């Protein structure tokens, strides 16, 4: 190795040590700030956020096939007045309601909150004075963060839709007042920044089960904020991961001494 190569290697190692000593902690601090702010947008108790925020929404479809006026409290629809036209008997209007005695649980919200809480926990478990010794240490934490943040985002963006028979047997459907006829069902779910309401009708056509549906949706402002922050946090994680992957090519790059504290509880 000539002098220029030695100097380049020394400079690279110095930069690597600075990244581990200073930049990683700075980025983890920025991530923590973003994720706590994200947590405080959730309507459920989460990382110091009291939760139980209440919002009212009106969902309608054109032409006047479906209408729902609802109250979203935390992760549950605590009140709703629902009316929709039976799809092949358009003169017939079906009405039902949701009340506090049997709220409609939106599990996606709580699932996303749980994954976000886990992500914040990964950062909380890193002592601010901890000296990282290798890129692998940091990459392990970043990969855990990315996994939790992706699951939190996916819980809101990619709803797990139930099969119609599973939906009809669900606790949510049984809480409607009055109960719907056996060939009708409704569903509420989150998709990205919207709350979706769908009405289903089952029928048998020449011995084959047919499912017709109509739906309405409305924007939920806090969901837009949450998704923006989750996406921003994932981008920050990916940038740090990419930088560390460059240094991880140099297996002899380690920091000599460090404290005996642990990264995770």
Write up this protein.
It comes from Pieris macdunnoughi. Belongs to the rogdi family. There is one protein chain. Helix content is 44%, strand content 27%. The chain has 265 residues and is α+β, with helices and mostly antiparallel strands. The two termini are 43 Å apart. Strand 3 (76-86) and strand 4 (89-98) form a beta hairpin.
Question: Which range best describes the helical content: under 10%, 10-25%, 25-40%, 40-55%, 55-70% or over 70%?
Answer: 40-55%
How many angstroms separate the termini?
A: 43 Å
Note the run of SSEs as H and E. HEEEEEHHHHEEEH
Strand residues, percent: 25-35%
Derived from helix and strand composition plus strand pairing, the structural class reads alpha+beta
Q: How many strand segments?
A: 8
Largest sheet: 5 strands, antiparallel
Instruction: List low-pLDDT spans.
Output: 255-265
Rounded to the nearest angstrom, the radius of gyration is: 25 Å
Mean pLDDT over all positions: 86
Count of runs of 4 or more consecutive helical residues: 6
| Coarse morphology | elongated
InterPro entries: RAVE2/Rogdi
Family: Belongs to the rogdi family.
Pfam families: Rogdi_lz
Protein name: Protein rogdi
Secondary-structure map with pairings?
Elements: H1 3-41, E1 54-61, E2 66-73, E3 76-86, E4 89-98, E5 104-105, H2 107-124, H3 135-157, H4 164-168, H5 171-174, E6 184-191, E7 194-205, E8 208-219, H6 221-247
Antiparallel strand pairs: 1-2, 2-3, 3-4, 3-5, 6-7, 7-8
Helix pairs in contact: 1-2, 1-6, 2-3, 3-6
Features:
disordered C terminus; RAVE2/Rogdi; 265 residues; Protein rogdi
